# Entry
Amino acid sequence: MKLFSVAFILCCLSSLSAQDFNNYKRVTNTGLIPVEFLTLSADKYKSDLKNNPNKGTVLEKNARKDFYLESNFLINELFQSGKILFNDSMGAYVGKIADVLLKSEPGIRKQLRFYVILSDIPNAYTTDNGSIFFTVGLLAKMENEAQLAFVIAHEITHYRKKHVINGYIENVRIDEESGISGQKSAEERMLAKANYSQDQETEADMEGLKLFLLTDYPASEAARALEILKYENLPFLAPFSFQAGVLSTGAFIFHNAADSVGEPDFKEEMKYEEVDKFSSHPALDDRIRKISEAAGLKEDDKEKAVEPSDGFLRMRKTARFELCRLLLIKGEYIQAIYSASILKKEEGSSVYLDETIAKALYGYCLHKFNHLYSYNTEKNLSASAVKVKDFLDSFSRKEMILFAVSYNYSCYKNKNSAAWKKRSIELLQLLHYEQDFIKTGFHADSLEFYAANDTTGKGFYRELSRLSRDEQYVKLNEYSKQPAAERTMIKAPVADKRGEVAMGVDTLLVLDPFYFRLQPLKDDEQPIRFIASEKSMLKYNDYIVKSGKRMNMRIEMLSPVLMGDTSTSRFNEMAQVKSYLEELEEYDQAEMVSVDQEELDAICTKYNTTSFALLGEVSVHTHRKKAGLIILSIIVWPTLPLGIIYAFSPSYDSFNYVAVYDIDHGKRYENVHRMRQRDSRAAVNAALYYNLLQIHAK
Amino acid sequence: MKKLVLIFILLLPLVSIGQVPGYMGKRVYLYYGGTGMPTVGAFFMNETAFDVNIKQQLGVDFVLSRRNVLGVSVELINDYMILHDEEGYYGGSSLGVIFGPSILLNYKGFLFRDRGSIAPVGWYSSFSIGANHVNVTDNGKYFPSGKTDLGSYNTGIFTFGYGKQTVLWDRITFDTGVRFGASYSGILTLLKDVDDLGMDEISQKANTKVFANYLFNVNLSFGWLVK
# Structure
């Protein structure tokens, strides 16, 4: 009975966590927050110093200490950024492959933790403390679990051989021994560092290959794993080329181009790789050649591809769906349309993929026709994605906008949500500028006439005619012409004569405040005082809460340093809002392209606010100009002792940063308050209170 | 004095305009401190360089807005001055006691934009205007009846200053600064012939002493954020 109950609960849990790809939701963290996400970097630093014997020369000892300090702080920043997933399906799958690789070395396996980074750039990173990261972009690109296994084996070798810390120490040694004494130029030092790093990469390839060959995976996939990295800008390889027909909607019926039929030829996607002697990695061709030689691969072997398992395909599908969302956040609309259309062809139709295309078309129209330039939209386009761009560029302006309207309106009809309505209205308003006939009064009869004779274009009149028969669309179109429907662009609240604002916010959701204490750069010092920064950050969280109480403003903190291991839902909320703000910051808009409005609304309802804030403090220790002060105090000679004390005491600049987004009223307030003094408790509290008061004041 | 009170009352409505009410909402603070400077007396009063001329201060400041603070303070002059006694009662020269309060209306402007000061924290410049009343007596050692009044003097005073204020442990204000000032009668004494002014020696010395007291000072005070 017990067994039955356990099995039943497990079934329920698995069904709960199973992804519905038709209505795909972003991957979220589950279970308990791992300890290393919540441990202070100062504690990790102390632990590293205690557990790792610091042997060697003075230079090595100092470099090792610096490494532990810097790496723990930076890795903590990453852990707490919300961009690292924990206890998720993709990370779990990577862990399973690592289990296979390290079957005979359970000791090493126990030391390793595998995480997935929400980034579209294909990459993997290893840390000295056993955390290994894989990006969504990399997982989406892999063709089978064997290729993934080789990448994992490569990263495990970096960990086993202590490449990260050794590389750091070597870089310090190169700078210290040859830099300061001037024996080598900057270029020579860069080359020495690159050579060392390339040797490490080669060692990771060779040792990783040995580990990989202990499994049943064919050696050819090790070379293939590197081969596909050559398709640098292509989100992933697929058995189809871009086919315009997939994008058909309403009366916009597209036919596939002749060159899109049959197997795609990805040769044009291949990265032309110059031999870069300063690169941290050897050239991919060299790496592939060495691996092929070491594994004794023949040409025939390379043709034998491993059939991906169901588990891998499920993991990769998640990664590819997630990739679409990440591309939207970055404003890579063309790549997003390409990825979604390929997935639609490969995986079948999906509401999520249609919504991705709709959001990307909305973003693309704003980018093209509304002066909201997104730098990433046309950057690093893969050759395949260029076909999407060429296809979209073949539309006239009004055709393009109506095409986007069609997609977005269709999503609005399906979901009936405010966000889709807003997007549709905004596009309709763009369309009004294009359609003179709407302003002059366009008769339904003539529209039908145009529609019947619309044979040369993309189907603009046919689609307009189709939509004009839809009552809901007609109402929406009429509404979009009214002033009330004006776009709710995020704008700064109006400041009074003193430059102060009053946003009237009663409840504020504060996200992961930051605190950095910087010091002047000397030869052997870090610019950031890591431990002092972390200590100050803890206090700063406290100051925020206290200031809120003092002015009767309710402040909800979504800060990892205030979370326990069971605060997973709060951590997810923080990640979601941060991702939203990241996009908002980039494009200055109230209706974000990528945002899942339902999720955001749920957070707003839970905390009873639509105002989110990013707060932070940066303190910079600067050098004081001494001469003027001393001369002045000599002139007013009784102040000489004070002048000398002042001249030789350290000088500081403190910057208090606040950015508040009131998404309901479409306001954004951003302020950096600079105080020319040390970041004392008084100075920080005064600036923080001043900034918060403007948010709260009515 | 009535005028000063009137100005203070008239300035109070500014409070409703100013948006930033002090340090974390606390806008009133009481303070106590000292202000003085050695050596200044040496120029005017034949005193030694170690005569510090300390005046005790007690005041209250009110933060009107992010940049403006208004307050009143009382400063007490309690000092010695060297008297020259032509009639010989005191043996040629002796120490007199000068004692009396100054009431000042103080304005602190946290106006240095590049320093980002937010009242009451940060760098400020100050301006004070007020009245001073001092009594001069002998030191009580020459007549069995004790201290003998030698005169009472009133004058107007003003000061300009520059300083830095901070708050410790969210409660205690700590203020340091320098201040330059003068008294009305002191200026007259220096500029005009004493005979023309109809001043006797004690009057002249008392006025000069008050002038010297306000000429240049270093301030140091601690306060308590009340509300």
